[in-house]
Amino acid sequence: MAWANLNDVRCYYEILGQGPPLLLIPGLGVTSRIWEPIAPELAEHFSVILVDNRGVGRSKALRHATTLRDLTADLVELLDFLQIDRCHVMGLSLGGVIAQRLAADHPNRLDRLVLASCTDRFTPYLRHVAMLLGRSLWFQRASTFARTVEVLGSSPEALDASPNLVEERVAAKCKEGVPARAVGRQLRCLACADLDLERDPIRAQTLIIAGEHDVLIPSCYARRMSHRIAGSRFLLVRGAGHNPLVEQPEFVLPEITHFLNTGRTSAAVSTHEADPAVASDARRGFNSSVVSGGHR
Fold this sequence. Notes:
Blueprint: E1 2-5, E2 9-16, E3 21-25, H1 39-42, E4 47-51, E5 60-61, H2 68-81, E6 87-92, H3 94-105, E7 110-116, H4 124-139, H5 142-153, H6 156-161, H7 165-176, H8 180-191, E8 205-211, H9 219-227, E9 233-237, H10 244-247, H11 249-262, H12 276-283
Parallel strand pairs: 3-4, 3-6, 6-7, 7-8, 8-9
Antiparallel strand pairs: 1-2, 2-4, 2-5
Helix pairs in contact: 2-3, 4-8, 5-7
């Protein structure tokens, strides 16, 4: 456990493993603990940098964030503090939106980029989702907000296979005690996001991952985003919800590791309809079509 005293935040971070640096950016209302199920495997290949976003978890805000650029400024300052010139970056959900802002504004600080369960445009559908979450946050108990997020964010297959999954995750989130005000501030940062990938293009090699059954940020938005990031690769993980990295790590993590190490993806996950079963067949020698992003 360690803290970096930055301009606007006493930023909590951890570093696991050795290798090329990989910065992991968590999503809405969650801390770096969201990565616990997968961080040890990633740390076998990378120097994994875990961070709590400003005002959440163990990162204490000296000034509240009002824009995505406030949050990306913290990350750039943290990299400076750690004397890291460039790193790979992976963001989940809101963390993926923050990662896009980081990649657009500070392209010289990124090597390769992984965007999971996110999009670049705040559409009417997503505004309604944000309004639903906001009302649940302000007018219901903390456990109700956490349960709303978990039910909407989990795939039917995951919940049916583990009936106690939601209650376990709700209990863990309530134990962390992220204040409703902190989540509300993150929602406001998201609502006023000014991402424009045509005006501020992302030049880093990018892998975009989405779960087939994600209701919070449906995969269609990630797919469309892949068309606006030149040369990007899109992976739809069948049977997964809002966090395919945790729901299907045995399938997703090897592909992330391969992409970060080589800039390429296997034939199986380069398709727009990647399926773990198809990937398994492809590795045994079956053919699979290859489709890249960055087209219109």
